[in-house]
């Protein structure tokens, strides 16, 4: 059995689905299976809330 770290975290970007701009940098936990892939966030360049997708490095 492989060892698992309880607090496995990863830094990701939240990229706007409309204009493709990376507006947020956030930390997600990858220990609890698949993380949420889409979030409603405010896009600064478009001045509205859009769907942001998680982008790994
Ligand atoms: Zn945008």
Question: How would you explain this protein's 3D organization?
Answer:
The protein has 57 residues and is an all-beta fold. It has no helices and four strands. The chain has strands spanning 9-16, 22-29, 38-43, 48-55. A four-stranded antiparallel sheet has the order 2-1-4-3, with no helix packed on it. The protein is elongated and about 45 Å long. The structure holds zinc ion. The site of zinc ion has 8 residues, from loops.
Concise account of the structure shown:
With 57 residues, the protein is mostly beta strands. It is built from no helices and 4 strands.
Describe how the helices and strands are arranged:
Blueprint (H helix, E strand, L loop, with lengths): L8 E8 L5 E8 L8 E6 L4 E8 L2
Antiparallel strand pairs: 1-2, 1-4, 3-4
The structure holds zinc ion.
Mean pLDDT: 86
Shape: elongated
Biggest sheet statistics: 4 strands, antiparallel
The percent of residues in helical segments reads under 10%
Taking pLDDT < 50 over at least 5 consecutive residues as the criterion, the unreliable ranges are none
The string of secondary-structure elements, in order, is EEEE
List the strand order in the largest sheet.
Answer: 2-1-4-3
Instruction: Identify the quaternary structure here.
Output: single chain
Query: Over all CA atoms, what is the radius of gyration?
Result: 13 Å
Task: Classify the secondary structure makeup into a structural class.
Answer: mainly beta
| Strand composition percent | over 45%
Small molecules (ligands, ions, cofactors) in the structure: zinc ion
Task: Give the strand tally.
Answer: 4
Number of helices: 0
Distance, first to last CA:
28 Å
């Amino acid at each position: 059995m492989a060892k698992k770290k309880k607090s496995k975290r990863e830094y990701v970007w939240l990229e706007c689905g409309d204009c493709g701009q990376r507006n947020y940098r956030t930390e997600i936990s990858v220990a609890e299976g698949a993380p949420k892939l889409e979030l409603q966030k405010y896009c600064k360049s478009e001045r509205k809330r859009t769907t942001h997708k998680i982008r790994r490095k």
